[in-house]
Write a structure and sequence with these properties.
The complex is a heterodimer. Chain A is mainly alpha-helical. Chain A has one domain (20-156). Chain A has helices at residues 5-12, 22-157, 160-179. Chain A is rod-shaped, with a radius of gyration of 67 Å. The chains are: A mainly alpha, B alpha+beta.
Chain lengths: 180, 178
């Protein structure tokens, strides 16, 4: 209405006769009013609706974006947390592995030491047994040879008097047995 | 074990037939002679043949007893043993009879092995020593074994008394051998 004021003013002051008529002005005004009415009747609700929807859509999008941002941030936090845990796990595994390795090395070393000791002891025993066996065989061979030699010497030189003496000794032994 | 019991039973039966020690001793000697013949491989071979009947075996034992001129009780004893299929156990019976007789007469038996033929004194002294151990009269059986080298070995009532040089040498060898 304010926009139309100059026209009203122009019309009140009767304007320039050569420039137009009141009818044209009214026509224009009615025309304009119709135009504005149509705009208000059809375009304004549609525009209003459009902008309301647009605003709702933007708000929704912003909300979604905000949610997505929060979720992304949450995921990022979780990922960072997992990464931190993974690092700790990795460090723990590395430590465990190092401990196990040290333990296994120690165990293998102990077993090797024990096996070496056992082998050494076995060898010492085997050597001692072999030495003892060889010594015994030599003693037996010598004893056998000595006995054979003694046997031959005695048999070659054995007399009736020797037999008598031996039988006498045997009788003495039997008598001692009888006295027991 | 069964044979031993049978032999003991038969020996006791024969021994119960007389109280005369001399007669019992005579029967013992006859029984030993019979056992030697019955145990000879030739006799065993014939008596063990499956084709020989029991009657034939009894008759064969009777003839052996007759040939050996055994006294009537021993002859009858042999026939009874044959009739009961105990011919193979006659030697065990004789051995058992001998032991029972030895017990009855208070004597025992010993086997003395010398390295050389012993003199009468040597044998007598060894027997006397064995009698002192057994506290019984000893009937000795002597043997000669040159492998003993010197000395003697006596076996009395299952125990060995070794006084041989061979054993002493073996002991010395064992001692030297460690």
């Amino acid at each position: 209405m304010a926009a139309l004021s100059p026209s009203f003013a122009y019309a009140a002051e009767s304007g320039g006769a050569a420039q137009g008529t009141w009818g044209a002005l009214v026509f224009y005004i009615i025309n304009f009013a119709l135009f504005v009415g149509i705009l208000v009747k059809y375009l304004l609700p549609a525009g209003k609706h459009f902008f309301v929807e647009r605003a709702a859509g933007i708000r929704d999008t912003m909300s979604k974006a905000d949610r997505a941002f929060h979720e992304a941030q949450e995921l990022a936090n979780q990922a960072a947390e997992k990464l931190a845990r993974l690092e700790a796990e990795k460090a723990r595994l590395a430590s465990d592995l190092a401990d196990e390795t040290v333990y296994q090395i120690g165990r293998i070393y102990d077993q090797a030491q024990e096996a070496a000791g056992r082998i050494k002891r076995d060898h010492e025993l085997s050597i001692a047994a072999l030495r003892e066996d060889a010594s015994r065989r030599v003693r037996e061979a010598l004893a056998h040879a000595a006995a054979r030699l003694a046997f031959r010497m005695i048999a070659a030189d054995f007399s009736a008097a020797d037999q008598q003496r031996l039988v006498g000794a045997f009788v003495d032994r039997l008598s001692a047995e009888a006295r027991r | 074990m069964k044979t031993s019991k049978v032999a003991k039973r038969y020996a006791r039966a024969l021994m119960g037939l007389s109280a005369d020690h001399a007669q019992l001793e005579k029967w013992g000697a006859e029984l030993e002679r019979l056992a030697k013949i019955v145990d000879a491989p030739e006799t065993v071979g014939i008596l063990d043949m499956p084709t020989v009947t029991l009657q034939a075996r009894v008759e064969a034992v009777g003839k052996i007893a007759e040939r050996l001129d055994l006294s009537y009780p021993v002859r009858a004893f042999a026939i009874v043993a044959a009739r009961h299929s105990r011919i193979r156990e006659i030697s065990a019976m004789a051995e058992r009879y001998g032991r029972m007789l030895d017990d009855l007469l208070g004597r025992t038996r010993a086997t003395i092995t010398f390295a050389r033929e012993p003199g009468a004194n040597e044998l007598q002294s060894v027997v006397a020593a064995l009698e002192a151990i057994a506290q019984k009269r000893v009937i000795a059986t002597t043997r000669i074994d040159g492998a003993l080298v010197g000395g003697a070995v006596a076996e009395l009532e299952g125990k060995i008394y070794d006084g041989s040089l061979a054993t002493r040498l073996a002991e010395a060898e064992k001692l030297l051998g460690g």
